[in-house]
Amino acid sequence: MLFYIKKIISAIIALFVIFTLVFFMMRAIPGGPFTREKPLPAATRERLEDAYGLNDPLGVQYFRYMGNLMKFDLGPSFIQPSYTVNELIKIGLPQTAKVGIISVIFICISGILLGIVSALKANTTSDYLVTILATLGVTIPSFVIGALYILMAEKVPWIPVGGLDLPISFVGPVLALSGYSLAFVARLTRSSVIEVLNQDYVRTARANGLKESKVIFKYVLKNSLIPVITYIGPMIAALLTGSFVIEKIFDINGIGQYFTNAVLNRDYTLTIGITIFYSAFYILMVLIVDIVYSLIDPRIRLNK
Fold first, then answer.
1. What's the DSSP call for residue 169?
2. Bridge partners, 84 (sequence order)
3. What pLDDT band is residue 92 in, cutting at 50, 70 and 90?
4. Average pLDDT taken over every residue of the chain
5. What's residue 218's pLDDT?
């Protein structure tokens, strides 16, 4: 129990530090949310800044924002005043999450299976093929995969290259978003499985006449997947909260698009809100990974 309490306290402290840093870093950026190429009249700008409390001392702004944050209120968007940050995240998250969930499932199933096959058939044609594909996936950036897909899809009338209106619309974003992580999971699984296969307890299990399938599923997979879980946790957070570049390329109206526009327009509250949302989700996934760790291998629980 002490192990879990320590992890939760560490997560809360990390979130507090992130919230504080993001708030003051955004205020340190030159300009403001009402800075335009064509300047607003001084009186209008002053009224807007007063309305949003931007003329208050920085300490007052910080404690007011943290107080609202404790109530899960991320404030109004400066650039889209008819919406709050909570509402914009609520609108954009489903679009981002749809692509993210499909990508996570695709990566976990395909990456782990490819890694296992590659490890069990080490130094064979299958292994070399998986290694080549994994190397390509790691080295080719996601935006290049997305651009190549669009170039090919434009030649096929029934394949859309933007939005998520049809089921087939998900193919391009998922492939582009999954490329690196799929390759990394496959390589990580392969190396981990090979390492476990060379352990003494696996040799002993085989020497005792256990079926190969039982050796793999009972002894090898459980221990070899621990490093993979380390990567999958943060990966899920990254995929479910979107990719700014991929959402731009495929015209997906998700939180990645909102974040990009917020940074360009110096929308303090939306930028901070999405950053906080992403950070909280990321730390939550890392916390879940630590808990899963301790369930798979109780030795990880330091208090034991």
1. G
2. 76
3. confident
4. 82
5. 75
Is pLDDT of 31 > 70? no
CA distances 81 to 37, 61, 88, 280, Å, are 20, 18, 11, 25
Assess contact for 186 and 134: CB atoms under 8 A. Answer: yes
Cα dist. 87→77, 81, 210, 285 in Å?
Answer: 9, 11, 56, 23
- Determine the Cα–Cα distance for residues 281 and 18; give it in Å rounded to an integer: 12
The Cα 67–Cα 52 span in angstroms is: 15
Tokens of 5: 């309490």
What single string gives the DSSP state of each residue in 227-255? HHHHHHHHHHHHHHT--HHHHHHTT--SH
User: For residues 82-103, b (16+ Cβ closer than 10 Å) or e, as one string?
Assistant: ebbbbebbeebbebbbbbbebb
Structure tokens at 257: 């698009």
For residues 22 and 155, give the distance between their C-alpha atoms in angstroms, rounded to a whole number. Answer: 44
Q: Structure pTM?
A: 0.78
Using one digit for the tens of pLDDT, what is the confidence trace for 286-301? 788 777 776 766 655 5
Q: DSSP letter at 300?
A: G
**Assigned token pair, 18:** 């992130």
227 contacts 235 by C-beta, under 8 angstroms: no
* Euclidean distance between CA atoms 26 and 61, whole angstroms: 12
pLDDT digits (tens, 9 = 90+) for 47-83: 877 877 777 888 888 888 888 888 888 888 887 878 8
Count CB atoms within 10 A of the CB of residue 129: 14
CA distance 189 to 184: 8
